[in-house]
């Protein structure tokens, strides 16, 4: 990545800009301005992640660069977070979106703003950029949404295919910790009072989200797929094949009526100018082209670009981390594309695509099947990618092709299955794998389905034991090249731990028929689009006090047979070179299960947050645990606040939630 320090305009910064809301709440922002540019368009990033110690490193790379090219850039802390007033009740609440609309109106009215506003963000900021655009604030003309979703139920960290993702508990633990941190004592004389208010009001989101196990009005709120036509702003959507939020980009390109552009690279959950795996792209240059076109009215040529650009990755050996992914960029003028051939390959006793015929194959995977699935959302730069699938393949029904010619896959594979179950509930997981000549197995794409949801996520129904039913399960979108002479494998299992919470009882499925639909693209000869090399502004100056370290460890208790995944993410501790705040954090998770007992499943999270300022040492400890029986989920939580090693606040939570076809 090339570091730029000289721009068309000198950049001035206001580190602490207070924005008043109509209800008296004040939100605090960091503002970068192009000196001498006159009234300019503005770009808003609206987050709960704290501008002074949360996103400072990535903000330093991004916002000064855009400001230096003629934009006012604002990084605003949402209410109840960082140094802003108020309390936060949930993610993507009506209050959050109303606040964002009010902030946009305030920005547009400032004498330094031209009246045109853009909104940009990754993950949370990508979500609310779409959601705010659907509300049509008059000044919002364009957005750039990265690593986001159009459907909060189907494609976020809570549920997938109607199955409960364990990331639901993991992310609840993250927010239990993140939003309970104090303001910076240098910013507010009432920092301690505000901290105690936050601690008292902190919602236990694990319960909130678990109380909505169906796709109900709670999830419809903020799901822009309910009405794509409500989005009038120009939309640039960016994602990564190594990320969990890869499906939104093609969905937006397909459904947005106005100007839209989609880019998906090989990346995990990061901005593409500093993401891994490489190759990175000049994302900030692409962002400027988008903003110049839609906020300044300058013809930059983006209207003539192909609607969809995807990085077609070469098939490589399985690894839990990649520094780079070889491949090439391919483009489609529109999506869905007439260039894609949907190739149907039947499942048979001989394998995949080797003839058809009736099957009668029982499937009863041990509950720990899925151990090589990796992290649901790879983000922390540790060993989070799916590993060699052979261990999970051994616990699944597998159907292999013969060695194939080179095959380029672009789109969402799907699998049609006819099944019977011997219980009223169950789940199925499907992996599309790349089998190497020596037997190594790389996961290409995957999907899961709660079988009680096979006709509706809004109105699930118990299965009739012994009765046959048919499902079609869409896997995640992907762009992947299978090398010549290698095989494809469809692996089907009845469990996928620790990615999803198990069904209430062990199930035996019987597979009687199946077919894979594979989206195949004509062979790409080379890059069909090129991007500039990655550039950024100067990195944040900070002093490392404790280096980051990431552990992902599997354990087996040879006495009890229980297996566990242990995750330890120490994000390190550092001193900010701009204002001196010291911050650090450590996250720990433990997921345990017995291979023979779905009711033995247990999840535990523990976050530590540290903050130091002028001799004041502040710390929070946030712990959660969840387990179940056949009828209920049980949850506990504890939050502690410490000042100079003295416990000043503690709160315990206990909840139970009835299982609803889950």
From TrEMBL:
SMART domains cross-referenced by the UniProt entry: PepX_C
Alphabetical keyword list = Hydrolase
PANTHER family membership: COCE_NOND FAMILY, PUTATIVE (AFU_ORTHOLOGUE AFUA_7G00600)-RELATED, PEPTIDASE S9 PROLYL OLIGOPEPTIDASE
Xaa-Pro dipeptidyl-peptidase C-terminal domain location is 288-539
Source superkingdom: Bacteria
Tell me which Pfam families the record gives.
Answer: Peptidase_S15, PepX_C
* Gene3D superfamilies, alphabetized: alpha-amino acid ester hydrolase ( Helical cap domain), alpha/beta hydrolase, Galactose-binding domain-like
The protein here is known as CocE/NonD family hydrolase
